[in-house]
Amino acid sequence: MTTTIIWTIVIIAALGLALAVILYFVAEKFKVEEDPRIDLVEKVMPGANCGGCGFAGCRAFADAAVKAPNLDNNFCPVGGNETMKKVAAILGYEIKEKAPMVAVVRCNGTCENRPKTNEYDCLQSCKVLVALYAGDTGCAFGCLGCGDCVAACQFGAISMNPATGLPEVDETKCTACGACSKACPKGVIEIRNKGIRGMRVYVSCLNKDKGPAAKKACSAACIGCGICAKTCTHGAITVENNIAYIDYSKCKLCRECEAMCPTGAIHGVNFPKPLDKDAIKARIAERNKKAKEAAEAAKAAAAAQPAAAPTVEPSPKKEA
To answer: In the structure, what pLDDT confidence band is assigned to residue 30 with cuts at 50, 70 and 90?
Structure first.
């Protein structure tokens, strides 16, 4: 009996040793060489694994960054420019610093501005609600208020305001990873340029209905009137599908569009002084007056000039 046990142990040990040797040689033969810089890049990453960079996680981003010829198409929104400088130093690349971004809620549909037309009493999920119908208000484009964006944020940067029924973004915590934007089935949350000292102007509405219908659904909706686009002297505003949009790369933060908007759909945030609509409207009126006077003067000057005498072409000489 004892001999049987001993032989069993010996055979199992020998078999285990043989298999280990075989596995070692197989692993050596088929092993994939990995660039050691991938580990170095991963170590300087924030480790959020939020997917904001477009990859599944920080390891996948590090692998892509090492294999890329440059870092033009790779950026970590959580770590920002400081993290990318470290990555560039490891890889020997140069980077162009990007302006800080932040999540912006583009909806004016507060409980006061956009009253409910029915009650939704089911699973509190925007994804579920949008699959059932357009929402519990007259606006089919605005925030649904179930908080999918709050659940998606890993950094605690978004919370639902019970008074307005809308999400609010804490800029000090927001990393612009874009998870909230991806979670919103209505596309209400946009990742925008944070602006100089946090100052920015944007259209807080996505309603593409025509003016009367949009205004009926929400008293603070963009009605596509185009006054903002006509007012802007920098070409930063376009109106398409009955909705205005401000290009932050062209906006000079003059706030004239905000002052002229008849519904208050345009928001300016983090400005040191409150908006003085009267002063801005007076400035615009004076500018328009001067432009009109200049146009009339140019027209009068053109009319006062004598008409040029018609030129007579000399008749060709006849050959003898």
So the answer is: confident
